[in-house]
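## Example record

The block below lists the input lines for one assembly entry, exactly as stored, with component labels intact.
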Amino acid sequence: MESYEVTKKLLEAKKKKGKSFADLGNLINRDEVWVASLFYCQASASEEEAAIISSELVLDEEIVAKLTECPSKGLGPIVPTDPLVYRFYEIMQVYGMPMKAVIHEKFGDGIMSAIDFTLSVDKENDPKGDRVKITMNGKFLPYKKW
Amino acid sequence: MESYEVTKKLLEAKKKKGKSFADLGNLINRDEVWVASLFYCQASASEEEAAIISSELVLDEEIVAKLTECPSKGLGPIVPTDPLVYRFYEIMQVYGMPMKAVIHEKFGDGIMSAIDFTLSVDKENDPKGDRVKITMNGKFLPYKKW
Amino acid sequence: MESYEVTKKLLEAKKKKGKSFADLGNLINRDEVWVASLFYCQASASEEEAAIISSELVLDEEIVAKLTECPSKGLGPIVPTDPLVYRFYEIMQVYGMPMKAVIHEKFGDGIMSAIDFTLSVDKENDPKGDRVKITMNGKFLPYKKW
Amino acid sequence: MESYEVTKKLLEAKKKKGKSFADLGNLINRDEVWVASLFYCQASASEEEAAIISSELVLDEEIVAKLTECPSKGLGPIVPTDPLVYRFYEIMQVYGMPMKAVIHEKFGDGIMSAIDFTLSVDKENDPKGDRVKITMNGKFLPYKKW
Amino acid sequence: MESYEVTKKLLEAKKKKGKSFADLGNLINRDEVWVASLFYCQASASEEEAAIISSELVLDEEIVAKLTECPSKGLGPIVPTDPLVYRFYEIMQVYGMPMKAVIHEKFGDGIMSAIDFTLSVDKENDPKGDRVKITMNGKFLPYKKW
Amino acid sequence: MESYEVTKKLLEAKKKKGKSFADLGNLINRDEVWVASLFYCQASASEEEAAIISSELVLDEEIVAKLTECPSKGLGPIVPTDPLVYRFYEIMQVYGMPMKAVIHEKFGDGIMSAIDFTLSVDKENDPKGDRVKITMNGKFLPYKKW
Amino acid sequence: MESYEVTKKLLEAKKKKGKSFADLGNLINRDEVWVASLFYCQASASEEEAAIISSELVLDEEIVAKLTECPSKGLGPIVPTDPLVYRFYEIMQVYGMPMKAVIHEKFGDGIMSAIDFTLSVDKENDPKGDRVKITMNGKFLPYKKW
Amino acid sequence: MESYEVTKKLLEAKKKKGKSFADLGNLINRDEVWVASLFYCQASASEEEAAIISSELVLDEEIVAKLTECPSKGLGPIVPTDPLVYRFYEIMQVYGMPMKAVIHEKFGDGIMSAIDFTLSVDKENDPKGDRVKITMNGKFLPYKKW
Amino acid sequence: MESYEVTKKLLEAKKKKGKSFADLGNLINRDEVWVASLFYCQASASEEEAAIISSELVLDEEIVAKLTECPSKGLGPIVPTDPLVYRFYEIMQVYGMPMKAVIHEKFGDGIMSAIDFTLSVDKENDPKGDRVKITMNGKFLPYKKW
Amino acid sequence: MESYEVTKKLLEAKKKKGKSFADLGNLINRDEVWVASLFYCQASASEEEAAIISSELVLDEEIVAKLTECPSKGLGPIVPTDPLVYRFYEIMQVYGMPMKAVIHEKFGDGIMSAIDFTLSVDKENDPKGDRVKITMNGKFLPYKKW
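Predicted structure tokens for the full assembly:
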């Protein structure tokens, strides 16, 4: 079964059961974004986590097996066409070099890890229009010299 | 004067004066990332903001004029080669669709604005290695129907 | 069911019933272009809108369900090959920077929203050859400073 | 002199004289967007038009000569990085096929000309935020059969 | 049915009946190249034309219906790999700018229409090797000023 | 001296002397399109041809030398952005495969040479709008079997 | 049947019969490389050639029919990933311009035909390691002037 | 000094002295194609070879130094636009997979080296038109197993 | 059967039997990375090696046959999206030219063979976090002069 | 001063002084590959390291300043054209997925760091031809769950 089929089956099962990503995250003590990453085959669950989700959503064995594999990661085209996803690409185009400059000023030569990393999405109520708050938190990795 | 030359001159003047982006931000009541965006010709300053920065860094008139223009935005190649900037591209590749799913679950059909938007970079001290915390905050824009 | 299959089924049902996009738009009080966007899986309908269209075109439940999802948006190749669609790409290549200059002159630094946005297509009769009139109307979003 | 240098000189002269694109358009009875197109070397002026603009902005002869040539048209990268210009690319990605469907429904097989074509930018005041209105008007060209 | 399948079915029916594109063109008073364009789903026939071709080649109703739609046009890769088709790309690479210069010298600023346009292929017998003669004929469209 | 500089100098000299490509072609018994190709460094002249043109346009020796070299051919981007040149690309996209089918029907497996090849541009007066007529004539090259 | 399926069927039949490309070439008096080109749908056989190969390999009628068509030529990605094929791309990157210089020195302005062209692959035994010898032989085509 | 400047200087010196690549090759006992490769900065000469060529063509010391460096190799665009060079790309597109099949049949799994490799260009006189003969000779490298 | 299906079947059989790549490598005296390459259709086995693996994993005949063919090599997109694979691309972007400089300093003009080549992956235990050690070993191939 | 100019100056100074990368590495207790990375502006030196190298090679102050900056990393085209560098790209194309499979088998889901990473180049003498040995050593980073 290809990854996009696994995703489709998972999303259908979730919809049928009327669960949110947060609901599922609560069952296995994980953030909703991490659960969504698992649904899109971008993360791998432990056997226990897969069993709990499978039990909740009543999944086929083949899908459960896929949840515990180390997946080939990366989705979509080089430049995303979906407007919501594109905005993150645009943010990188516009604010990427400024962020690099500020990070180097604060930390020296190195990068923010995208592996030892968490990401959360919050909703901020605002009378002028609700706001999306994205928080990324990654370990700073200084360049090793040798 | 091309944008990359403006950036170069600004960075040299800042280095010579020994100022951080935060130091300059304090003078005009702006975040350090916004100041860095201005340095990379990705944002436009008011006349007053430009004057204060010019006075602090002793800039040429031509550079000051550039700071108040509406610049052509977007930096660098389609897929960034710099490892620090690439990680943000990778985050979008890996977590873009999961974020889209979570945002739609919480907000409905629409996007996070990249214009009515702020971004900050913080340093979290951690004995296992300091961490970079990026906070993005953008207005949710629901798709208009007509 | 993939989006292109949904589109195909919808177009076939519409043809069979002999309805125009405007006919369908009248039923749900929406513009014909918005209805066409819905058919191409670029917009999401409310449950009520989906029910009315489904009833008019006698659609399968699976298709109706797709109409209310938040779709992954963006169609076709990076540079369109269809001559009609290409002309809009060409207009952007030729008049994109001039439009940017005029918009900045009139509004300052910011963009026209493509989300809080409407688009209509009108036919102007003209003895020298009928004309296509496209009207785009989007909220101006000024760049936030922080 | 390369086109981008011509553009730069023209924009500087316009800024120095404090003229808007509309001011210059009034002198030669042309729309502000067409004048901006001329500044970006995407249109060609008559000798008379070039003379009036040259006189108003005090231009070098070499620049005046460029204004009357038939330029090589098309600006910027395949996918634009500037957020304002990108939004028009996104509109084509999202609404291109729907527009095609509506135009064919109203006009039959053919295209909207991008040559026998006009484009205007208007500002609509709105208490919830001003709006940008773009009007495109192009001759419908039916496909010739032979 | 996808366009490439329509093309395949049409070519098979034509081969089975032993008809040339010119034979079919004679039936509906159209040029052989236009008929070939119809077979490759790049042009749309009237109901009458579709009926005559269908009767001659004994086609399924689904294929006949496709012949009268306004198709999404454009075939093949960005740079063609087939040597015969590539040569036209090469001609554009080598002679495109020279043609532009000559057309502007003769007609002023504008383009040759590819819509109000005909194309024919003739065989010239020559003892040193037969020659292919391609004649393109398109309306000159002057750039509108506004 | 780079090719684009040679082209620029040649076009300036031609403009100064008020000569058309046809005028220059008459002096050396060549078609105007071939002369334009020479100006764009896409063809190579004999010593005699170069001398006549040089004498007519009063050229530097360095430019004359370039006219007789075998140039690196091919101009402009992969997909042309100039609307006039793009139309030839579009013609290939839309009519390339149909032309291939007709040529094979008339000639068998092989190609039209783009080397043993001529191209002319004619103006056809027409009360409904003048027309551009392009005639391409290339030797048919059958595929060799071995 | 798509070309890649034809290729697959032909290679399987050849393997089953234990024939080399040279064995098949001997039957129809053609070089082994030409036979391989036929198998990869890059060349077209005469009716007689197709009949002999069909008889030897016991092929379906549908495959035999494909062997006599004028195929759409060109295989694989823009830059080949297979190391053996890539080396020929590399040779062109490294030695393409030098070959061009030597060919022009020896022949004047023109090209080596890839149509009136043969190609053979030979094995040279060598104690230090056998060598592959590729011989290409194409007609020189001088650029026509007109 | 950039590579393309070195090439330009070398070609000018060679032209001034009226030497062919073969003349220079004779002086250092190398093939004309290898000498052309050296001129295009795709090969590196020994100190002795560089000295002999320098003496013959009267070169600057800076250029001589470049001849003995290990250059960054690879010239020109991904898909070549020059018709002569393109034909070699086309040969790879059309005959690449057939050559791969024949080489594997004769040699097993491995490649033809493009490093332990020679290439020559010969002129074959032919009353029907002279022919270009390219001979490539590279060591077969079998894939190592480990 | 396509290569990706062969890979899938092999990985499933391996998982079912609970074997590691190293286990299988021990059976045929090959490194685990080479075995993995075989599974991904990037290397070719001898008949004996294929028989041993087939016997261990209980494979279909069709899959066994594929293991002994010379495969078309190269996997995945031009720029890899999977973070683990991307890091090797990044290493080439960052350290490619430095490695080239060091190799030339130590060996002269030439390359490291990727054919006469081995690659191993080792795990180094480290209290601060285990480390991955990749060892590549390829024959140096000096550029042949001729 | 642009990075490529810094590299050029550094390489010239190194050549003039007759130092190898290893010689310079010994002075600052760093590996030769790291020193080469510094020369190609892919790593940043401490003030002390920069001072020692500057003193050894007699460098301008502007170059010394560049050595201590956090550079924008990444060199060369998307697919490298230089044969030596390309081989590493090929290795990733051919062995990337196999390495991924082996690393996951040994370490679980995660990546090899390219930041907490070292790389060395060694020469192995071999009577059948010297060999290049590349050793990469990077910290394994397991994917964080949250």
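Chains C and H do not touch (no CB pair under 8 Å). Chain C has two domains: 3-67, 83-142.
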